[in-house]
Write a structure and sequence with these properties.
heterodimer, A: 4-stranded antiparallel beta sheet, 5 helices, B: mainly alpha, about 80% helix, elongated
Chain lengths: ~180, ~425
C-alpha cells in the first residue's frame, strides 16, 4: 500500500498547488507591476503617478544579500540609493577597535544611501544585511538619464529627497540642542 | 559549521570556473560561426551607440518609438549610401587609372621644368644650378612610381589611341610626350597594341564568362547585413535591459563598482567617439569648402573632404593624408576656375597646402576644444607609436583603429583601477 493513499484528492490538489505555486514564485522575477506597487509605498515615490512609477521600476536593480553581507562600507563612493524590499539592514559606523556603533536597524519599505542620488561623496556609514535581505537599487546616473526624458519624475523625486533630508537635519538639530541643554 | 561553509565556498568556485570556461568556449564558438555577421552587427551597435543621445532627445513626440528609430535608421542609411556612392563613382576604373598615371607623369615633368626654369639647352634657374643633380634624382624617383609598364602602355593605347572610329583622348598627346622623354619606340608599341586588341577580340568570342547571379549575391548580402538594422533598432531602443542582464551576474561586492566603472567608461567613450565624429565631420566640411573655393570639382572636393575627414580620427596622419591627396590632385588638375581670382593651375598646390593648414588650425583652435575637449588626452608619442604599430600588425585596419583602441584601453584601465582603489578592493 503506497503512502499516497493516506491523502484525499482535495489534499493532494492543495499540496500540488502549494508546491507548484512555490516553484513558480521562486522562479519568478519581481515583476515590474509588483515593483510599481511596492515603490508606491515608499515615501520617496509616493507623489509619482502609476505611469511614472513604471519608468522608475524599469531602471531599479534587484539584489539579494546574505546575512552579515555588506551592502556598502563607510568611505566608499556612493552611487545608488537602496530600498529594502524584504529583510533587515543595520546601518553602523566601525570603530578603530574593530567594534561597530549601530546607528539604526532598517526594515521593509525603508531606504538608505539617499545622498548618493546627489553626488559621489563617500558613504558616511556602512550598511550590512542583518538577515537574508532583498533590496532595490536606484542609481544616480539612471535618475540623471530619466531627468533628460522625464524631468517631471526627477523633480518630484528630488523634492521628496529635499524634504526628507530637511526633516533629518531638523531632527539632528533638535537632538544636538537637547544634548547641549543636558550638558548645560 | 566552518567546514561546511568552506566546502560550499570551494564548490562555488569550481562551479563558477567550470561555467565560465564552458560559456566562454560557447561564446567564442558562436562568434566564430557567425563571423560574416560580426561586422554588420558591430556597425549597427556602433551607430546605435553614436545616435543614442539624439534618439533620447526626441521626447514628447506622438510617434511610436519604433517609427522614430526607423526614421533615424532611414536617414543614416541614406547618408551612408550617398557617401559610398560618391566614393565609388569617384574611384577610377582600369582605363582611368592609366590616364591618371599618364597625366601625373606628364604634369610632373611639366611642373619640374617650369619650377626649375629649364630651357631647351638644359639650363635652369639658380635653384637648378645649385641643386640640379639632387633634384633630378628626386624627380626620377618620383617618376618611377608613375611609369607605365609595357602591358599598361598597350592597354593605354587600346583605350585612348585615335583610330578610324575613335578620335582618341587628349591624354594620348601626353602619352606620346612621356614616351619621347623615356626614348620608347612608339611604332613598335602601336603594332603590339594592335596584336593585343585582335587577341582580346578572339578571346572574347571563344570564352564568354558567365555573369555571376545578381539575385544570389544580393541574397547573400541581405542575409548578412539584415542584422545591422536589427542591431541598430534594438540597441537604440534598449532602456538598460542589456546592462541589467550583465549586472545580475556580478557578485554583490562588485555590483556598485561595476556599475560605476561601466557608467564612467560609457561617459568618457561616448564623449570621445561622438566628439571625434563631429570633429571629423567639421574638418571634412572645411576641406570640401576650401578645395571647392580653390577650383576643385565639387565631386573631387567632396571625395577628398570625406577621406580627410574620416582619417582625421587619427591624429597627425589624417592631416597628412588629406594634404597628400590634395597635392597629388593639384598636380594633375586642368582647367582650374577658382572663385578666388589669384588661384590658378600654377599655384594650386600652394592653395591646397594652405587649405589643409587652415582646416588643421580650425580643428586645433575651435573644433577640438569645443566638441572633444580634453576628455581623453593621449601623449603624441603614444599616438605615433600606436599608429605605426597598428599599421605594422594589422595593416590599414590597424592604422584606422589603433587610436580608438588605445583610447578604450586607457579609459577602461584608468577607471577600473581608480574604482578598485575607491571601493578598497585593492
Amino acid at each position: 500500500m503506497s503512502s499516497d493513499n493516506n491523502f484525499t484528492n482535495g489534499e493532494k490538489k492543495t499540496a500540488g498547488r502549494i508546491f507548484w505555486g512555490h516553484i513558480r514564485r521562486s522562479n519568478r522575477e519581481f515583476h515590474d507591476e509588483d515593483k510599481v506597487k511596492f515603490l508606491k509605498k515608499i515615501p520617496f515615490f509616493e507623489s509619482l503617478k502609476k505611469n511614472q512609477l513604471e519608468l522608475v521600476a524599469q531602471v531599479v536593480y534587484e539584489r539579494v544579500y546574505s546575512e552579515d553581507e555588506f551592502i556598502f562600507e563607510i568611505g566608499q563612493p556612493g552611487a545608488a540609493l537602496f530600498i529594502i524590499q524584504h529583510g533587515e539592514v543595520n546601518v553602523e559606523i566601525p570603530n578603530p577597535d574593530d567594534t561597530v556603533t549601530p546607528l539604526a536597524v532598517l526594515g521593509k519599505h525603508s531606504f538608505f544611501g539617499e545622498l548618493a542620488l546627489l553626488d559621489e561623496s563617500p558613504r558616511s556609514a556602512s550598511a550590512r544585511a542583518v538577515v537574508n535581505t532583498r533590496l532595490l537599487a536606484l542609481f544616480r546616473k539612471d535618475l540623471d538619464q530619466l531627468a533628460e526624458t522625464n524631468p517631471d519624475i526627477t523633480s518630484r523625486i528630488y523634492k521628496s529627497l529635499a524634504t526628507i533630508v530637511g526633516n533629518r537635519l531638523k531632527a539632528t538639530n533638535e537632538l544636538i540642542e537637547k544634548k547641549l541643554k543636558a550638558v548645560a | 559549521m566552518k567546514e561546511i561553509s568552506q566546502s560550499r565556498k570551494t564548490r562555488r568556485i569550481v562551479v563558477y570556473s567550470a561555467a565560465t570556461v564552458f560559456f566562454t568556449a560557447i561564446f567564442f564558438g558562436i562568434i566564430y560561426g557567425l563571423r560574416p555577421m560580426l561586422l554588420p552587427f558591430i556597425l549597427g551597435a556602433f551607430l546605435a551607440y553614436l545616435f543614442k543621445p539624439l534618439a533620447r532627445s526626441f521626447r514628447g513626440s506622438s510617434l511610436s518609438k519604433y517609427i522614430r528609430a526607423g526614421v533615424l535608421l532611414y536617414f543614416i542609411g541614406l547618408m551612408l549610401y550617398w557617401s559610398f556612392s560618391l566614393v565609388k563613382s569617384s574611384l577610377p576604373d582600369e582605363s582611368e587609372k592609366l590616364q591618371l598615371k599618364v597625366r601625373l607623369q606628364y604634369r610632373l615633368n611639366e611642373r619640374y621644368q617650369s619650377w626649375m626654369g629649364l630651357d631647351n639647352n638644359g639650363k635652369g634657374n639658380i635653384i637648378y644650378q645649385h641643386l640640379g643633380a639632387e633634384l633630378d634624382q628626386l624627380k626620377q624617383k618620383a617618376l618611377t612610381y608613375t611609369k607605365l609598364t609595357d602591358e599598361e602602355r598597350k592597354d593605354f593605347l587600346l583605350y585612348n589611341a585615335p583610330s578610324d572610329e575613335f578620335p582618341g583622348t587628349r591624354y594620348y598627346d601626353y602619352f606620346l610626350i612621356n614616351n619621347k622623354l623615356q626614348n620608347i619606340d612608339g611604332l613598335k608599341l602601336k603594332a603590339a597594341a594592335k596584336e593585343k586588341a585582335a587577341a582580346a577580340k578572339t578571346d572574347a568570342m571563344v570564352t564568354a564568362t558567365p555573369e555571376p547571379s545578381t539575385l544570389a549575391s544580393l541574397l547573400t548580402i541581405f542575409s548578412h547585413w539584415i542584422i545591422m538594422p536589427l542591431a541598430f533598432i534594438f540597441i537604440l531602443l534598449d532602456k538598460g535591459q542589456i546592462i541589467h542582464f550583465f549586472l545580475k551576474l556580478i557578485p554583490n561586492r562588485y555590483f556598485e563598482l561595476t556599475y560605476t566603472v561601466l557608467e564612467k567608461v560609457d561617459e568618457a567613450l561616448g564623449k570621445y567617439i561622438r566628439g571625434t565624429m563631429i570633429e571629423c565631420f567639421l574638418v571634412g566640411l572645411s576641406l570640401v569648402i576650401g578645395f571647392y573655393l580653390c577650383g576643385f570639382e565639387l565631386k573631387i572636393a567632396a571625395l577628398i573632404g570625406i577621406i580627410g575627414g574620416l582619417t582625421n580620427a587619427i591624429p597627425f596622419v589624417g592631416t597628412f593624408i588629406a594634404c597628400l591627396i590634395g597635392v597629388i590632385y593639384s598636380l594633375i588638375a586642368e582647367n582650374v576656375h577658382s572663385i578666388l581670382p589669384f588661384i590658378n593651375e600654377n599655384n594650386l598646390m600652394l592653395a591646397v597646402v594652405g587649405v589643409v593648414m587652415v582646416a588643421h588650425l580650425l580643428d586645433n583652435a575651435i573644433f577640438q576644444p569645443l566638441v572633444v575637449g580634453s576628455a581623453v588626452n593621449i601623449h603624441p608619442l603614444v599616438v605615433i607609436l600606436g599608429v605605426f604599430g597598428g599599421s605594422l600588425m594589422f595593416g590599414f585596419a590597424g592604422l584606422i583603429f589603433a587610436i580608438p583602441t588605445i583610447v578604450v584601453l586607457k579609459v577602461v584601465t584608468e577607471t577600473f583601477f581608480s574604482g578598485l582603489k575607491d571601493y578598497r578592493i585593492i
